[in-house]
Structures are given as C-alpha cells and as structure tokens.
Amino acid sequence: MGRLTGKIAIVTGAGTGMGRAITRALAEEGATITIAGRRHAALDETISAARDTGADITAISADVSKWTEVERLVQMVIARWGHVDLLVNNAGTNTKRRSYTDATLDDWDSVVRTNLDGVYFCTRAVLPSMRARKSGQIINISSMAGRQASVMSGVAYSASKHGVVALTQSTNLEEWRNGIRATCIEPGEVATPILELRPDVPPRETWKDMLQAEDIGEAVRFLATLPDRVLIDEMTIRPRIRRMG
C-alpha cells in the first residue's frame, strides 16, 4: 500500500514531460489520479506509461485556460470520487516570440491564460471541496523565471510565473484556516519538450545536464507525502551544472 492510497489527485498538463513524471510518481504511491490536458492521445500515453503501477488513472481532455472546461473537469472528479485531496497545477506553455520587440498580443494572451489563469481557475474550482473537508493540498509548478525575470524565458512567461508565486502565497494566506496548504515549485532548466519552443533550442547534448522530468516528479512525491501539519511555501530546484551563470 502506497503512502497516497485513498487520496484523490488531479494533475494538469499531464500529457508529456513533467506532468507525465508527476503522474507516475503519484501513481507509485497509490493515489487515484485524474490527468488533464488538451490532447487526449498524449494523456492515453501517460496512462500507458504508468499502467504497471496498478493505480487508478483517468484522463479528461480539458484546456485549463478556459473556466468552463476547468469547472467541468473538477465537477466530473467530484461526481465520481466525492472530493479532491491534491491538485497539481502543472500545465504551462510558452511561445517562440518572447520579447517586447517581437511578441504579439496573441502570444501574451496564450501564455498568461494557460500559465496564470489556468492555475487560478483550477485552484478556484477545487477550493470548495477542500474547504468542506478542512483538508487539501495544492502544488503549483512555477519556474526560476518566477523569481527572477529572464530574457530567455520572455516577458509573458516571466510575468505569468511570478503570478503563480503570488497565487500560491495568497492561497496560504487565505486558506490555512481551512486546512489547505499550497507549495510553489520553481525549477530551473528541465529537459522537456517545451525546450523546443525556445528561439534557440539548446543543443541536445546539453539536455542530460539539465533537470529531468523525473526530478520534478520526485519533488512532488516528497511534498505530497509530507504530514498535513507541514507546509513548504516554496521549493527552488535547479541543475547542479550551470550553463547560464
């Protein structure tokens, strides 16, 4: 029996990369998981990759940048399981055009709607269930660009990830009395498909020196298995090898 047996979890952005690794880590601990993302085929691949754990994993297509889809997602989980114990806000995106000079208003909107609004929408949707039970955990995936703006990450990404840090702080300020705790994970470079969206994609031989998706999965496992009395507000995790200073 895993340490999360009986816990009901939602993981967003679970079709690839960190979301897939987070799903695997929680599944190994026995959690019952609903994974969400825009592409159902990718979600099915995540389920296949974790099938050997024996965990109960359900996929629901949902775009977290749209409130109606988030509301439907959470309502479906509660209708089936009765509540939500753990929400991992992992969904995120970026664009090729990232600076004030070349990014369009559509670029800004697509990044902020997913990275920031998505976290707010998902958190807002699960809070009533958590408040009712006086228990719940929210883990938000931000970025080191959420602590220090980065030219490489871009204006919209840096701003949205700063916002995720603030949303996490606000959740803890408002909801601790309701037994709810939130943590913000701020990774450095992670070798995931989002690197392909950079204007200059890092050489493949450097990817092995970056954080791997499984490292973030292990960080989420650690947080999710801590006693309810423990709150870690923020966790910064970076590669040991520093390519950028």
How many domain units?
Answer: 1
Instruction: Report the span from N to C terminus.
Output: 44 Å
| Radius of gyration from the alpha-carbon trace, in angstroms | 17 Å
Number of helices, where a helix is a run of at least 4 consecutive DSSP H or I residues: 6
Structural classification: alpha/beta
As for the CATH topology, it is Rossmann fold
Provide a compact summary of the structure.
With 245 residues, the protein is an alpha/beta fold. The protein contains six helices and seven strands; from the N terminus they run βαβαβαβαβαβαβ. Helix 1 crosses helix 6, helix 3 runs parallel beside helix 4 and helix 4 runs parallel beside helix 5.
Describe the structure.
- The protein is built from 6 helices and 7 strands.
- It has a single domain, classed as 3-Layer(aba) Sandwich (Rossmann fold), CATH 3.40.50.
- Helix 3 packs parallel to helix 4.
- A 7-stranded parallel β-sheet has the order 3-2-1-4-5-6-7, sandwiched between helices.
- The protein is an alpha/beta fold.
- The longest helix is centred in the middle third of the chain and has 29 residues, at 105-133.
